[in-house]
Amino acid sequence: MKKSFKVLMSVATASAVLMSSCGGGRSVDAFCSTLENEQERILEQLETNQANAQDLSAQGNDLAAAFTSLAGVGVALGDLATYFKSLSAVAPAEIQDDVEVVAEEYDKQLDDAGSAASNPLGAIGSGIVSGFKTAGPLQRVDSFARENCGQGI
Fold it and tell me: Residue 51 in contact with residue 29, Cβ under 8 Å?
């Protein structure tokens, strides 16, 4: 299952990057359009997952609801990796490097998530280092998005 999840996320990421790189190029308009479209897509998926978990719980199937919610966490991490890869494909030069740093770190976190169960301390350490690496770039990308798109990342 772990391998099929990574394959699925790789296909989704490649598709999103290819779609976002068709037309528009690297521009503020392309960045803002991608930001809005990706946020809508992610929110729809989260709402669907939450509704499915609530339906299962209402039917008395709390274990399935818990697993559905847990699966949603993994999907969310994959969605963030796809989100930032899509943004990095269209980011204008002034913010491109920062978006690429964030995209690479989320992709690395997705790769590292599979080994978290066997090496929890390593996963915690890796997460802390990743947080330090992305703090500045995330802040700059968010400021850029707020200034140019009217909404944060």
Answer: no
Q: 3-class DSSP state for residue 34?
A: helix
User: Would you state the pLDDT for residue 21?
Assistant: 43
pTM to 2 decimals? 0.69
The position carrying tokens 């999103």 is 16
Q: Are 111 and 9 in contact (CB under 8 A)?
A: no
CA distance 135 to 33: 24
Which H or E run contains 120? helix 120-149
19-23, 83-87, 111-115, 132-136: range with lowest mean pLDDT: 19-23
Residue type at 45 in one-letter notation: Q
User: Measured between alpha carbons, how far is 80 from 56 in angstroms, rounded to an integer?
Assistant: 26
For residue 129, CA distances in Å to 13, 39, 51, 113, 125 come to 24, 26, 34, 14, 6
The CA-atom distances, in angstroms, between 35 and each of 4, 60, 66, 105, 117 are 27, 38, 30, 18, 32
Distance from CA of residue 11 to its chain's centroid? 14
Q: Residue type at 29?
A: D
pLDDT at res. 47:
87
Per-residue confidence (pLDDT) for residue 38, from 0 to 100: 95
